[in-house]
Amino acid sequence: MIVTLNNLTKRFGDVVAVDSIHMQINDGEFVAFLGPSGCGKTTTLLMIAGIYKPSEGEIRFNDRVMNRVPPKDRNIGMVFQSYALYPHMTVLENITFPMRLKKVPKDKMLQRAQQVADMMGIGHLMDRRPGQLSGGQQQRVALGRALAKEPDILLFDEPLSNLDARLRLSMRAEIKRLQMDLGITSIYVTHDQVEAMTMADRIAVIKDGRLQAYCPPGELYDQPRTLFVAGFIGNPPMNFLEVEVVRENGEYHARTGGFDVVVPPERAQKAAGQGKVIMGIRPEDITLADQGIPGEIYVVEPLGRDDLIDVQIQDLHFRLLADPSLNLKIGDPVQVRFNTEKVQFFDPATERSLLWD
Ligand SMILES: Nc1ncnc2c1ncn2[C@@H]1O[C@H](COP(=O)(O)OP(=O)(O)OP(=O)(O)O)[C@@H](O)[C@H]1O
Ligand SMILES: [Mg+2]
C-alpha cells in the first residue's frame, strides 16, 4: 500500500499541529517520524488512521482518497505506547478482537492468532490475561493483535518507550525483522533518533509541524539540509561555530579569532565570501594529533568505550571522542586536527545547508 500525504494540515484552534506536510511512503516501506515532543507526530498518525480529520489536504492509500473513509474501513493495525490491551480478556481474545470486528471466520481467526503468537514467542501464553504478563510480553500481544488482522498499513506510536533498555533493543530488532518479512507499509513514530536510524528505510524529521527532511538514515547523517537536522541527528551532537570562509592563494580557509583550518574547495565554495556562516563538525571528525591546533581539555566525560572530551581552543569549545587509555585529565594541553572533508556549512539567517540544499 502506498500512502501519500498532500498538503496535510491540522489545526487545533490557533495551534498548527501539522503544517502542510507533503510526502509519500512506498509500498512495504518502513518510515520513521522523528522529532521533538509536540512537533506533530502523533497528530499526523491519527489523521492517517482516520481518528482525526485533516483541517486541510489529502490522504491517499494507493490511488484512493481516504479523507472521508471511517477508521474501521482503513484496515490499519496500530500499536501505541500504552499497549491498550483489554485487561479482562485473555491474550487470545485480545489478539482476535480486531478480527472478530472484521467478522473473520472462526477457524481462520484462531489459526491466524496462533500463527502470529507463535511467531512472536507468546504462543504458550494464550490463556493468560495482560496483568499476568511482563511488559515485553504485553508489547508483543499488542503487536500480535495489530498483525493478526492482516492490515494494509501498520502504525506505531512510540511502542517501545515503556520498556527497559535491553528489552527495547531486542524488540527493536524483532519489529524490524517482522516488518521486513511481512512487507507491510509501516510508519513508526519516535523521538528516539537511535530507534529511527536503526529501524527505518527512510526518516521524516518533523519540527513544529513541518517536514524538515525525508531521506534514508545515512543521508540524514552525512548530508543534513538544515541546521536543525544537523544538530538533532547524532549523539554526541555535531559541534557548531561561527566562521568566515575566505579564499587565499587558491585555498579556502574557515577562520574565526585565532582559529584557522583549510577546507577542501568542494565543501567551502558556496560558503566563501558569505560573511559569517555556521560551520558544523561531528565529534568523530575531530581527533587528537601530535601536530595540530593547540587547545586545553576543559572536561572529560567517560562513556565506557570512549571518553567524551570537551576541548577549549581560544574561547571555543569542541566535543570529541578519545580513547580512555590515554587517561586525559582536565587542564591537559592537547592538539587537535579537524577532518575538514566532513565539515558542514549553514547560512545563519535561513539555517539551511550551504552544501546540500
Ligand atoms: N486535541 C488537541 N487539542 C489541542 N491541541 C492539541 C491536541 N492534540 C495535540 N495538540 C497540540 O498539537 C501539537 C502536536 O501534538 P502531537 O501530539 O502531535 O505531538 P507529538 O509530536 O506526538 O509529541 P510527543 O513526542 O510528545 O508525543 C502540540 O502542540 C499539542 O499540544
Ligand atoms: Mg506523540
What can you tell me about this protein's structure?
By secondary structure, this protein is α+β, with helices and mostly antiparallel strands. The chain folds into 2 domains: 3-232, P-loop containing nucleotide triphosphate hydrolases (Rossmann fold, 3-Layer(aba) Sandwich), CATH 3.40.50; 239-346, OB fold (Dihydrolipoamide Acetyltransferase, E2P) (Beta Barrel), CATH 2.40.50.140. Helix content is 25%, strand content 36%. It is built from 9 helices and 19 strands. It has helices at residues 41-49, 91-101, 106-119, 135-148, 165-182, 193-199, 217-222, 227-232, 265-268, and strands at 3-12, 15-25, 30-34, 56-61, 64-65, 76-79, 153-157, 185-190, 202-207, 210-215, 239-248, 251-256, 259-263, 276-281, 286-302, 307-313, 316-322, 333-338, 344-346. The strands form 4 sheets. It has a 6-stranded mixed sheet, with helices on both faces. A 5-stranded antiparallel sheet has the order 13-12-11-14-19. A 4-stranded antiparallel sheet has the order 2-1-4-5, covered by helices on one side. Helix 2 (91-101) runs parallel beside helix 4 (135-148) and helix 3 packs across helix 4. It is elongated, with a radius of gyration of 25 Å. Magnesium ion binds next to helix 1.
